[in-house]
Amino acid sequence: MRPPGSNAKLKSKPKVLNQTKREVFIPSIVSVGNLARILRVSLSRLQRKMREAGMGEEASYDHVLTAEYAVLLAEEFNYKPVVNDEAAFDLYPSLPTDSSTLPLRPPIVTIMGHVDHGKTTLLDTLRSTSVAKGEAGGITQHIGAFSVPVPNSVGGGLQQITFLDTPGHAAFSAMRARGADVTDIVVLVVAADDGVRPQTKEVIQLIQRDPDVQLIVAINKVDKPGVDVNKVQNALLAEGIQLEAMGGDVPSVEISGLTGKGLDQLVETITAVAEMQDLRADSKGQAYGRIIESKLQKGLGNVATVLLLSGSLKPGAHLIAGTTHAKLRIMTDSTGSQIKVAGPGMAVTVSGWKELPGAGDEVLDGSEQDVKKAVANRKRKAEEQAMMVDIDAINVQRRLDREQRGREEGDQPDVTSETEKKPHELRLVIKADVSGSVEALEGALKCIGNENARAKIVFTGVGEITESDILLAKTSESTIIAFAVPVPRSAVAAAVAQSIPIVSSKIIYQVIEDVRQRVANLLPSVYEKRVSGEADVLQIFDIKLTGGRTKTIAGCRVTKGIVEKSKKVQVVRNGVVVHEGRLDTFRRLKDDITEASKGTECGISLESFGDLKKDDVIQVYNDIELPKVL
């Protein structure tokens, strides 16, 4: 490494006034990869900055930097670095630079595709269970992670393949991205009777961003009559996926998840691709993995599905994930059986978490002291970052408060434009069965609305609805979303007593539509006039009344529909409405009437309007409230 003062081009930037710098703690020595994590920038971006500064030789992710260089790099990203080993302490994965001598690990295969294209049914056939029948609304709403023994094409016997089944609904984009992020092979399931759909295209985009992920296309439902496989292949070609059948390099298999047709060939293809990738991992070192899902489970408390990518995991291990930690109590595999050791490529359910970890968080093991120390530092950093995010909002609110006080003191009118007025808000308290569902719901619901009405997330959590949730909803005037979680009778009673609405469903698109309609209902009402009858004014008569008064009566003929006295009327003259009101006198010959149909001649006078003229048109109408749409 070049010592300070060499030809490296890094230097402190001049101070910029009125620019808030974020404080960051830097250890005395730190690897390039870990510094990227500390600075919350991508490794490639940090390496690019180092190469620009003439540090290309030191830009490998495992190269160790001294504090002097780390400080200068931090300043390049507008941080205020502080060298403090205690405050900077954290746990990071220790991954080997050369994996060629490590043992082979099971491939991690993610099944992806559009909703209802048969992903879960395909996996059901592989593992001979029936998950799809129990899925709410017939769609997968969680990432399922499990291992399946399949025949080994080399040497016979069985080998393990870890499968991830991701949701297809549009709201679960983050879960699909997380599945692609931890996978070696993506099997893109495309229904032969439906072709390339929105989530199909989204998966293709995810794969195209990661050249290390190998793609296999499974064209499903080929047993259906009338399907055209060539049409699907051409549609994939239009999206940049060149199948082997079309002269490309992407393997494809025609299958039927329902009958099992082609599944042997699919497994062989997966095995062959995995062998070419030569997937290896350390099976004895530090445990490193990712949280696939987390939830509250009766009898076990906080549990999480961990996909182990490296190292080994045993009961009693101290784990860290995000800002929470665990002492591993019980570990079960995808069948629910307790196991004593988990190795790379396995998906296991882990209990013992102090708090629920977030879906997608990295999982690492370490000593109890190191884990607790790292958690404390992470929580402090999270609080500082949240404070930084809030500063702008606080300053904006204070400025608005000052302007409001100024208007009140100066007795000035509020000139706030319509576009600056706050929209109506549907506040939401979201509780779901697992953290991934919370993530998907929050992402889908917070986007609902426009400049006049919108949804606002007040709180999210995992687990059943409690009386504390009801209290929170009452205080914040919120609606409770109970997604795939029970609502105990006590909570229902409390909600009824407090007039708190609860939206309870197991199907995400039903929740989205319900919330969308509730937000739409916050919009101001819009009415449309529906004319139900018209009468032409043929002649004007002045009728003498007692006391020398006169009353103008219009001799009319009903030309359209039915004229009813109970409805509102408008007078149209030369195409322009000159009066709106109600009928006063409504007679046929000498009799008072309440309605007259087409062709009927009648006498009409209006309340508070005596200026009727020949050839005016009197229309009767209803004000119809139009459906509210965002």
Automatic annotation (TrEMBL):
Xref: PROSITE patterns: G_TR_2
Keyword Transferase part of the UniProt annotation: no
MF-aspect GO terms: GTP binding; GTPase activity; translation initiation factor activity
Keyword annotations: GTP-binding, Initiation factor, Mitochondrion, Nucleotide-binding, Protein biosynthesis, Transit peptide
Main location: mitochondrion
GO cellular component: mitochondrion
Classification via Pfam families: EF-G_D2, GTP_EFTU, IF-2
Subcellular location: Mitochondrion
Record-annotated Tr-type G domain positions: 104-280
Bias (Basic and acidic residues): 399-410
Region (Disordered): 399-421
Family: Belongs to the TRAFAC class translation factor GTPase superfamily. Classic translation factor GTPase family. IF-2 subfamily.
UniProt function note: One of the essential components for the initiation of protein synthesis. Protects formylmethionyl-tRNA from spontaneous hydrolysis and promotes its binding to the 30S ribosomal subunits. Also involved in the hydrolysis of GTP during the formation of the 70S ribosomal complex.
PANTHER family: TRANSLATION INITIATION FACTOR IF-2, MITOCHONDRIAL, TRANSLATION INITIATION FACTOR IF-2-RELATED
Protein name: Translation initiation factor IF-2, mitochondrial
Organism annotation: Lactarius akahatsu
